[in-house]
Amino acid sequence: MKKPVKVAITGAAGQIAYSLIFRVASGSLLGPDQPVILQLLEVPVPEVLEKLKGTVMEVDDCAFPLVHSIEIHSDPMSGFEGTDYALLVGARPRGPGMERKDLLTANGGIFGPQGKALAAKASKDVRALVVGNPANTNALIAATAAAKGGLDPKQIHAMVRLDHNRAVSQLATKTGVHGNDIEKVIIWGNHSSTQYPDISHTTVGGKAAKSLVDQAWVEKDFIPTVQQRGAAIIKARGLSSAASAASAAVDHVRDWALGSNGKWVSMGVPSDGSYGIKPGIVYGYPCICKNGQYEIVQGLSVDEFSRARMTVTENELREERAAIEDLLA
Ligand code: NDP
């Protein structure tokens, strides 16, 4: 058996975590021969910690062969001790009458200290994925704090993989193929309704997607459906998406850690000037992962239609950044 690795999950009593913890424990994240130590973090509220204990009882009851041990924490300084992979799910939800700036600032108060704790306590090679919204800007705040403690901002990502998976599924249904036959889908920008799901370079069974669907469908159906899928699920289920968000988080971290086998995956990573997106935000890009590292796919053509949409979502992220600029100092 391999040496166990430490996987931290914040918001561990929440609904996404209720799916995520079991996927990680069963080996979906790091493979069927990799034991894990689960570091579960929650807010220091007795009722929430009690609820988390109930989840831990259920994990115990699964008798998962790969679970080495389970820890419960309410302080990231203890919860991130030696962490190899961190799934940052817990975030402050928007309350009634809450302005976007207030939401961003409230989350800054969570993700700044978590970034600091990752740098102080986690493995120097830690890989962290921010799921909690507003995920891109939360990741920027965490990465900025972590960089002050010596981590590379490239070690902290934001999740746009759920949007990527939704785009694959919509296109597969439209073209009558399995999602496995679809490659090179891109989600550019923010995990929000300004995201740009792009099929300009996508292939369906080796053929250009653009030759199989018309532009009117892309503009009026595909893009809005992917952008607003979260709201559609809330309407149907009466609750926000949870299992699909957890599944996408598993996909993101597994591909990052174990490689994407040459496939393009969409990841929210620090902008580095690629495709004209200047540094300073965490932006969804097409990436290929190998040997535990990601690289942004380079050299793609960007037409006017795509450029306009990439700029809208970039501008939203710059506005989000401006709202919390003081937290980055
Ligand atoms: P969920 O588990 O449903 O969601 C957690 C976060 O994931 C939210 O920010 C949510 O955003 C976000 N998210 C990102 N992508 C998606 C998606 N596709 N679908 C749905 N959500 C998505 O929230 P719960 O309220 O059930 O649980 C959150 C837990 O986090 C609570 O137990 C709370 O105590 C804890 N928490 C922990 C904190 C900490 O660690 N310091 C701070 C605050 C809360 P959105 O809000 O936009 O739906």
UniProtKB/TrEMBL annotation:
**Entry's Gene Ontology molecular function annotations:** L-malate dehydrogenase (NAD+) activity
> NAD: is it a keyword of this entry?
yes
Write the Enzyme Commission number(s) for this entry.
1.1.1.37
* Residues the entry annotates as binding substrate: R94, R100, N133, R166
Reading the lineage from the top rank, the first entry is Bacteria
Query: What sequence ranges are listed for the domain Lactate/malate dehydrogenase C-terminal?
Result: 161-322
Positions of the Lactate/malate dehydrogenase N-terminal domain: 5-146
Quote the record's binding site residues for NAD(+): G11, A12, A13, G14, Q15, I16, A17, N107, Q114, V131, G132, N133
Q: Which GO terms describe its biological process?
A: malate metabolic process; tricarboxylic acid cycle
Query: Of which family is this protein a member?
Result: Belongs to the LDH/MDH superfamily. MDH type 2 family.
Q: Which HAMAP family match?
A: Malate_dehydrog_2 (MF_01517)
Q: What is this protein called?
A: Malate dehydrogenase
* Lineage, uppermost ranks: Bacteria, Pseudomonadati, Pseudomonadota, Gammaproteobacteria, Nevskiales
